[in-house]
Amino acid sequence: MHETLPYLQPSDFPAIARRSLETLQINIGLRCNLACLHCHTNSNPHRREAMSEATLESVLAFLERRGIPVLDITGGAPEMHPGFRGLVERARALDVHVIDRCNLTILEEPRFESLAEFLAGQGVEIIASLPCYTEDNVDSQRGKGVYRRSIAALKRLNALGYGLPDSGLTLNLVYNPLGPSLPPGQEELECQYKDRLREDHGIEFNSLYTLCNMPIKRFGSTLISRGQFDDYLHTLRAAHSDANLENVMCRNLISVDWRGCVYDCDFNQMLGLPIRDGDTPLHLDDLLHAEIEGMPIRVCNHCYGCTAGQGSSCGGALS
């Protein structure tokens, strides 16, 4: 696999700084039941990196001590971590809003049959990847049979109240392009998703988030192999909007890897660019009593993926 960081430096991306911390995003582990082409974490069924019990305790202590309102749990398939359910229960007991970034198919796997009911019982918000509303496009990106299993999972979630009016159970879907192009307008595409999923399968959901594919890890390496990396980076840079700088997710979020090291965002985490105090990478325990508001954010050319077009973040388009 090609290393993408050398292709992303040096960078002329505008300097930005942190604001108040609102979301703690953690990558609880890299094991996943899928191995998607666009995956920026290189997750697959053979990965074994996972947060230790001690680091999970650090996460909970940080949430409580700092009064962080949102815990955003990613992976891999985060639900495959043996400590996932305990973490969710304890975070919810602190009145923290919990987000589970779910690939949907995990809900259909053996040993995870009760997962959907658990998430509903805890009032967890689900942000689920569904890169298209057609079977061929999804399966070409994520593997044969993934679309069918995703639809089955969505029906289970709807049966529990997810995505339905007044249920209090939020189900958001995530779209990303099949290749090196910008996503279409989020509002228009959301309407298309809702119409097709409702007509074809009777499925409802709350919102659609459109994300750019980041030119890092597996997707970035594929671009390099195909000779498309520079062209895609040019596409991102040419579509940059300064207005999106006001709302990029790294201003109010920190990302924590399975070892407890802290990054400005999940993409910097995958590139190995941690938040630093001088030359020393910071661990979550180092921030228990420290203030990071106003600190500069580490930027590189992949950051144009968050500011291109309508913008792209863990919460979808920025403008």
Secondary structure layout:
Blueprint: E1 23-27, H1 53-66, E2 70-74, H2 84-93, E3 97-102, H3 115-122, E4 125-129, H4 135-142, H5 146-159, E5 171-175, H6 186-201, E6 207-210, H7 217-225, H8 229-238, E7 253-256, E8 262-263, H9 266-271, E9 276-277, E10 280-281, H10 304-307
Parallel strand pairs: 1-2, 1-7, 2-3, 3-4, 4-5, 5-6
Antiparallel strand pairs: 7-8, 9-10
Could you walk me through the main structural features you see in this protein, from its secondary elements to its overall organization?
- The chain is α/β, with parallel strands linked by helices.
- The protein has a single domain (5-307), classed as TIM Barrel (Alpha-Beta Barrel), CATH 3.20.20.
- 31% of the residues lie in helices and 13% in strands.
- It has ten helices and ten strands.
- It has helices spanning 53-66, 84-93, 115-122, 135-142, 146-159, 186-201, 217-225, 229-238, 266-271, 304-307, and strands spanning 23-27, 70-74, 97-102, 125-129, 171-175, 207-210, 253-256, 262-263, 276-277, 280-281.
Structural domain tally: 1
Fraction of residues in helix: 25-40%
The rounded distance between the terminal residues' Cα atoms is 34 Å
Show unreliable segments.
Answer: none
- According to DSSP, the number of beta strands is 10
Largest sheet, strands/sense/barrel: 8 strands, mixed
Gross morphology is globular
Question: What is the radius of gyration?
Answer: 19 Å
Strand content: 5-15%
How are helices and strands ordered from N to C?
EHEHEHEHHEHEHHEEHEEH
Gross CATH architecture: Alpha-Beta Barrel
Helix segment tally: 10
Side-by-side strand order of the widest sheet: 6-5-4-3-2-1-7-8
Going by helix content, strand content and strand pairing, the class is alpha/beta
In the CATH hierarchy, the third-tier topology is known as TIM Barrel
